[in-house]
């Protein structure tokens, strides 16, 4: 039936019928294909370059994160030490002593 259709009549044939699927698709045995067959030295060098660059950048990011975390930890410890100092009884006694001496001065 399809072979009997002329030029413009073929455009009205449903897609499932034209072209015949079994006649146009060659069969290929995928298990016979060697995965490294298509990769030459140039492709391997390009792949190695990409891997090395990604490792370099990721190492840099990890180092930057570790340095940032250490800095944040040091700042938290400094803040805690300052808070402990500000709340200490020795500082309170010093402040009361200083305030008493200053208030006794008459300018």
In words, what does this structure look like?
With 107 residues, the chain is an all-alpha fold. Helices cover 61% and strands 0% of the residues. The chain contains 3 helices and no strands. It has helices at 21-24, 41-86, 89-103. The longest helix is centred in the middle third of the chain and has 46 residues, at 41-86. The model has no long low-confidence stretch (mean pLDDT 75).
Percent range of helical residues: 55-70%
- Residues in β-strands, percent: under 5%
Structural class: mainly alpha
Which stretches are low in confidence, meaning pLDDT under 50 for 5 or more residues running? none
Terminal CA distance: 119 Å
Order of helices and strands: HHH
Mean pLDDT: 75
Number of β-strand runs: 0
> Any idea what the radius of gyration is?
40 Å
What's the number of helices? 3
What does the overall shape look like?
Answer: rod-shaped
Largest sheet, if any?
Answer: none
Task: Please outline what is shown here.
The protein is mostly helical and about 110 residues long. The chain has three helices and no strands. The chain is rod-shaped, with a radius of gyration of 40 Å.
Keywords:
107 residues, mainly alpha, 3 helices, 61% helix
SSE map:
Layout: H1 21-24, H2 41-86, H3 89-103
